[in-house]
Write a structure and sequence with these properties.
mainly alpha; 0% strand; globular
């Protein structure tokens, strides 16, 4: 990787990793309070979700839009004209959140999303570096950013449950990107392009419906979107045991579980936590763990095929171990409402946190080598 690009990656990801650590420790504090354990960093629920969504996920998705995906589609990363103000606004969002200046945090997050939306309009809605015209993936990526920009306004005006509505940002973006990346990673041709578009619309409506106070209806919509996305992606044609595919199937399991929990319990009590984190952690990070490993190899030119098989040399052992740790931690969290014992609350947060931080640091190390 060029000496000019790596500092830009650090400038974007450093506030994100700080948010992940602080937001994650806050989440652990909340879990440990259930078990009667001392809180390592009691910042509160308001700061927790803002740090995770508009700190960490904003950094992660911003890095993808401005750098990784931009290299794939446009042949180069975003210029400083986009990266510098985005990094500053991201840092301000984190600082305002930590200071409890939530209105300012919403405004800075809104401005950062507008920068990503402007860059998406310039790069992803234009022909690629080899002359390919924009496809569904490009339009859905821009749509995901546009829809997400509404969420900070909800928070600023005190409308609905902004914490729930904010899930549309990372999950909607994942749906958009996966409309293309599933075929790149797995070699499976999507069955129905229109199905991916409808699934994206349904998942966006689902989280806004949940935020508006109708969790059972939202659960049905999440289940419908999950099923339609799976069918339309072609993933159900010839199910295989392959690292990337196992990760993607696992991700859809967690998203479906979120829908089932909402539809059956209405997200009451501790089931709200299960529904949120099954989607926010289970779905997103299993996708990231399964897809980014392969895309990184493609960018580095280390593999000639677009899939990573358990039978090939180069099977991502470290990533597989971290994935197992992630999913065991999530399973402990999902079991807690039915079996509320202190060991479950004490172990789930650290297991998930270590897996995510270790994976992201490894990906940054590999990006530096590009």
């Amino acid at each position: 990787m060029s000496t000019t690009l790596f500092p830009r990656l650090v400038a974007v990801m450093a506030p994100g990793l700080l948010s992940l650590v602080l937001g994650g420790l806050t989440g652990i504090s909340i879990l440990w309070s259930w078990a009667g354990l001392p809180s390592p960093i009691p910042l509160g629920l308001d700061r927790h979700w803002l740090l995770m969504i508009f700190g960490f996920f904003l950094a992660l998705i911003g890095n993808e839009v401005l750098h990784v995906l931009s290299l794939e589609w446009g042949g180069r990363a975003a210029s400083l004209a986009y990266t510098a103000p985005f990094a500053v606004l991201l840092l301000l969002t984190v600082a305002f959140t930590l200071a409890g200046a939530f209105a300012a945090a919403y405004l800075s997050a809104f401005a950062a999303l507008l920068i990503l939306l402007a860059y998406a309009g310039k790069v992803y809605l234009a022909p690629s570096r080899i002359g390919l015209r924009p496809v569904l993936y490009n339009y859905l990526l821009a749509a995901a950013l546009a829809v997400s920009a509404v969420v900070p306004i909800f928070g600023l005006l005190g409308l609905f449950n902004a914490a729930v509505a904010a899930l549309v940002f990372p999950i909607g973006t994942i749906f958009a990107v996966m409309s293309r990346d599933i075929s790149l990673v797995t070699g499976k041709r999507p069955a129905r392009g229109w199905g991916n578009a409808v699934a994206f619309a349904l998942i966006a409506v689902a989280f806004f419906t949940w935020a508006a106070g109708a969790p059972r209806a939202a659960g049905v919509l999440i289940l419908t979107a999950s099923a339609l996305s799976l069918v339309s992606s072609g993933l159900l044609r010839g199910v295989e045991v392959r690292y990337s595919l196992v990760q993607i199937y696992t991700a859809y399991f967690w998203l479906a579980l979120s829908g089932i929990v909402l539809a059956t319990t209405g997200g009451a009590g501790l089931w709200y936590d299960v529904a949120v984190h099954a989607a926010a952690l289970g779905f997103i990070f299993n996708i990231v763990f399964g897809v980014d490993v392969v895309l990184m190899d493609m960018l580095a030119g280390q593999v000639k095929r677009v899939t990573v098989s358990i039978r090939r040399r180069g099977f991502p052992v470290a990533e597989a171990v971290l994935s197992a740790l992630l999913n065991v931690g999530l399973l402990l969290r999902a079991l807690y409402p039915a079996w509320p014992t202190p060991p479950l609350a004490a172990l789930t947060g650290p297991a998930v946190g270590v897996a995510i931080v270790a994976f992201l640091l490894n990906m940054q190390r590999r990006l530096r080598g590009l």
